[in-house]
Amino acid sequence: MAPGAVASMVAAPGAVRPEEGPVKKRRRAADEENRANKCTDFGAQKSQTVACPHCRKKSVWKDAEYQEGLVTTCPYVECGKTYQAIACPHCRLKNVWKDADYLQGLVTRCPNAECGKAYQTINCPHCRKINIWKNADYKEGLKTECTYSDCGREFQTVNCPHCRRLNVWKDADYKSGAVNVCAYEECGKAFQTMSCPHCWNINVWKDADYEQGLVTTCPYAGCGKSYQALDCPHCQRINVRKTADYGQGLIYTCAYEDCAKTYQTIGCPHCQRINVRTQADYEQGLVYKCAHAECEGTYQTIGCPHCQTVNVRKKADCHKGFIYGCANAKCKQKFQTIGCPHCRKINIWKDADYKEGLIHSCAYDECGKEFQTITCPHCERVNIWKDGFYSQGVAISCPYAECGEAFQAVNCPRCQVLNIWKDANYQQGLVYTCVDDDCKQKFKTVEGRVLTVN
After folding, report:
1. What is the predicted pLDDT for the residue at 46?
2. Domain assignment of residue 428, given as a range
3. Region annotation Disordered: residue ranges (predicted)?
4. pTM of the shown model
5. What is the count of structural domains for the chain?
6. 16-36 in b/e burial notation, b at 16+ Cβ within 10 A?
7. Cβ atoms of residues 380 and 409 within 8 Å
């Protein structure tokens, strides 16, 4: 799980596009039930009456404009105390908060022993009328539409994880994943939230330490699935990946239709953070430095030629001709790579049959130039011949200053496997046996030519 994620008692915001979700508008008490809060069996009231829980005196709203759920002040001078009241949508019993400490958005349970059912309510920030979720299935952070036909406007809400009070985005412009500061002055603490795209429950980072791009595991016991979220580098809006595949070097298209631009991401193998390329021009095999200042580690990636899985090389050694096993457990096939010294692009040998010492042509049409490589047997670094080529059997001094050791090499004339003399003691004219166990061909060199010996 990403650091700090906690399961909230309340439900959740969006995924792929955060305003979308399975409960976008409701599953709440029907409009008739909302209207019933202001009605009796005898039809719509011309006035409303509510008894103050402190002094028990009745307050009358002649215009029937009392709004359930809002803080009400008793109009009697000798009282003047505040309270809140809501009719339970199940049993219709008035639920009263004598200290006016009812917290909108949280799950409330009716105190009536014969009922005891849960529900949620939020007063619309536009018309101030109470919206009721009879099944207590309100989803925080999602765009919600007021159920009243004379309003119908959208809004978003999130309960602060510190003080638990409702923060409201009247214009429905809440941004999932962004750092938000509680709107209440006596709290004012920062937090972050993200909706799990699998179960739609809200994941909360109470310390506002959520980091975009990291793989997050939903903390709800009934879910526990992973996902990733990242702002589009073009429009800065959150894109959520249910498959948590942001680290694989793939090209993505922003989920928002008014953007729909492409970008590319890769996970740094050192710090695990996501590196984003707005031009979607990431090229496999090139050495990249992590964009995060506190890391700046270098890495390379290679797409497996068998299954296309992106393999990330923490040591950035794809240019050296090493044989790699695919990181995908379902593949694990071997392949070999070498960097062309002319164009710097990675050439791949799908069957891991690259032969050092031989002259190779770059596989890219726009290059096609020749090169030759031999790995020094002393320091194990690649010696590259970009222009003038190595003559077989001639003593080589490793060009790396901290090495400089001499060695000799000859490609077997039968199997092409490179035979190396680490001590540079190979002699022309003498007969040698190929080191490859499947070959064992005898050979010698005469005037620079390698000949088989029967």
Report:
1. 59
2. 355-453
3. 1-34
4. 0.57
5. 3
6. bbbbbbebeebebbeeebbee
7. no
